[in-house]
Amino acid sequence: MASISLLANPASSEDQAKQIVNEALQALGGDHFVNMHTRVSSGRLYSFFRDQLSGAEVAHIYTQYPMTVEKGSLGIIERQVLGKKQDYSYLFLGTAGWDITFRGARQVEEETWHRYRRTTENDIFYILKVRKDEPGWIYDFVGSQVFLSRHVDIVDLNDSQSRTVRVYFDHNTKLPVRQEFSWLDPTTKSRNDEITDFDKYRDIGGGVMWPYTIERTRNGYKAFQLFADSVQADAVIPPKMLELPAGAKILR
Predict the structure, then answer these.
(1) Ramachandran class of 146: left when φ > 0, alpha when ψ lies in -120 to 50, beta otherwise
(2) Average pLDDT for consecutive 10-residue bins of the chain (252 residues)?
(3) SS in 3 state form for the chain?
(4) CA angle in degrees (0–180, nearest 5) for 76-41-168
(5) Residue 190: CB partners within 8 Å, gap ≥ 6?
(6) Rounded distance, CA 234 to CA 212, Å?
(7) Contacts 24+ apart (CB under 8 A), 4-7
(8) Strands 164-170 and 176-184: what pairing?
(9) Which residues have a Cβ under 8 Å from the Cβ of 87 and sit 6 or more positions away?
(10) CA–CA dist 249, 44 (Å, integer)
(11) Are the C-beta atoms of 117 and 131 separated by less than 8 Å?
(12) Rounded CA gap, 76 and 92, in Å?
């Protein structure tokens, strides 16, 4: 059964934190969650700039977790197909992202790729599924409180690069309901705070639980919303979906 090893002293803050994280991992589906190879979602995706709606799309999202991952590469491949006609998309491979239309394929701007990578690496689901066995993790129990009428247990997950993700776990269901992390803009040197809320969990197959509603704010402003109407674990992904289209013109 998938788990995170506990230390010898059960009263320590780290052991308490690890127990909460282990319970969350089991609530998400345990080994079925960890071994999930693909996920296919559909729904509505909204993007915002300073709380103002900047995009609203019908989205079909195809996600694969590769069995082997090269050093320096993300352990996820994802294609976000957008629009009612599904005529343009973003393809995120392990080391680069692509903007694909009928005109061809263009590598996404560096800022877009860094944002995708940062958001992925600090995502609690990605941490529990892909990153949990990395060396150097430190877990710290922050405390319990009432959050939006829910009793939650709060844990800080600190990785070997001194990045911290604070996660609020529902005390009753054990599932993550909120995560928070901060990052420093390398150009402006300003601190940025990102908060993501998760809601409306459902069994997406084999006992794997997944949130149908994901909402993110950045520096207090609404940035992203995803309202799924279908999510399926280990779904069959159409051939070539997670590759650049054959013969696509590479745009500059």
Answers:
(1) beta
(2) 63 91 98 98 92 87 96 96 94 97 95 96 98 96 94 98 97 98 91 97 98 97 96 97 92 88
(3) CCCCCCCCCCCCHHHHHHHHHHHHHHHCCCHHHHCCCEEEEEEEEEEEECCEEEEEEEEEEEEECCCCCCCCCCCCEEEEEECCCCCEEEEECCCCEEEEECCEEEECCHHHHHHHHHHHHCCHHHHHHHHCCCCCCEEEEEEEEEECCEEEEEEEEECCCCCEEEEEEECCCCCEEEEEEEEECCCCCCEEEEEEEEEEEEECCCCCEEEEEEEEEECCEEEEEEEEEEEEECCCCCCCCCCCCCCCCEEC
(4) 70
(5) 184
(6) 16
(7) 4/132, 4/137, 4/139
(8) antiparallel
(9) 101, 102
(10) 29
(11) no
(12) 8
- Structural contact between residues 91 and 100, judged by C-beta atoms closer than 8 angstroms: yes
Q: What angle do CA 33, 234, 82 make, to 5 degrees?
A: 110
Residue 189 and residue 203 in contact, taking contact as beta carbons nearer than 8 Å: no
All structural domains of the chain: 13-251 (2.50.20.10)
* 22, 46, 73, 200, 214 from 77: Cα distances, Å: 26, 21, 10, 25, 19
- Only one residue has tokens 């994280």, namely 21
Place of tokens 């282990």: 22
Q: Comparing C-alpha atoms, which of 39, 74, 36, 34 is closest to residue 60?
A: 39
Separation between Cα atoms, residue 180 and residue 163, nearest integer Å: 11
pTM of the prediction?
0.94
